[in-house]
User: Fold this.
Amino acid sequence: MKDIQRKIAELAWGIGKITIMEVCGTHTVSIRKYGIQQLLPGNVRLVSGPGCPVCVTDKRDITLALSIATQEDVIFTCFGDIMRVPCDGRSLYSLYEEGKDIRIVTSPLDALTIAQDNPKKQIVYFGIGFETTAPLTAALIEAAEARGIQNLSVLSAHKTMPQAIIHLLKDDNTIDALICPGHVASIIGAHAFSFVPEKLMKPAVVAGFEAYDIMIALLGIMKMLHDGERKCMNMYPRAVKPQGNKEALSLLYKVFEPCDALWRGMGKIPSSGLKIREYYKKLDALSKFNININDDKFSINISDEKLKDTKVTSDVMRNGQDETNKCICARILCGKNIPPDCPSFGEACTPANPLGACMVSSEGSCAAYYRYSNLLHGDIG
Assistant:
């Protein structure tokens, strides 16, 4: 590791200030856990992009989830992290505390079992995440269709990574290179990120998650920057193939089709979401609950008086900014700031009392900074 550290420093010398973005929640955690920033020369800065699935889930989608979870005879299922994301003073967890039947699952297929065990209830699974988890949701929908399950539906807030990267970086000259997400790349393939050098004119590497993986990836980036090269290097070949996982991709696009999607902090990004195809319409929660979405508004018959005002949404639907001056999660997701820049970080906002999604999720940048805050100014050997 010391040798890699020395080589990075030698290559960085004379280049000037360098900012490298990672767009994977697991990379975010690993970089903080292993103190990677402290191993780099002072002119090399690492920032996090929109790689945390929970964090990028838009306020509108959280509001939709809250609305459905209040319906009579509904069992709402989701992953644990999304439960505590605040939305206008409420969350799925607060609804759970009020007595709503909201259950944490560890796999989308758990919702299928719950549906079979509760035939008189409507089971809704909240599908979030990127190309890594979307095939699992597709498998749930396919299995429910094959078994003729009538009391299950999916609220899809799944997103795809390439379109978001293009949207974020196409006019951004402050990011010099990209560490591409290893988990997503294992599904869509290393070649799927060739647009980074070809369209965005920036070096990119697909990286693994151990300290050595990340340092080797950074060395690869430094070599490209030093030599003036722009290409996408797969430095995680043990898990990532050039064309990805064809079986998973086939299932994904059998069940889903691209659609425009809202991202926290970035607003609407064309063709960056995944909606359920017409063939599986009866398993789509939007259809089952007669939810009509029109750009920045949606309507639903809401039984909970506290959620009556969700028919008209907040400014997040128009400009991607839903944070108060006490929380800069949106800016952190875009790599414009790091967590310690936030006036609430570590004081008013902690994992026990999060103000924003970046502190809620275990893969959120703020949560990772907070958890490994002892490394912020530590001497890492």
Remarks:
- Confidence is low (pLDDT under 50) at residues 302-322, 375-381.
- The chain has three domains: 2-47+163-180+195-224, 55-160+245-317, 327-374.
- The radius of gyration is 21 Å.
- Residues 55 and 240 are 25 Å apart (CA to CA).
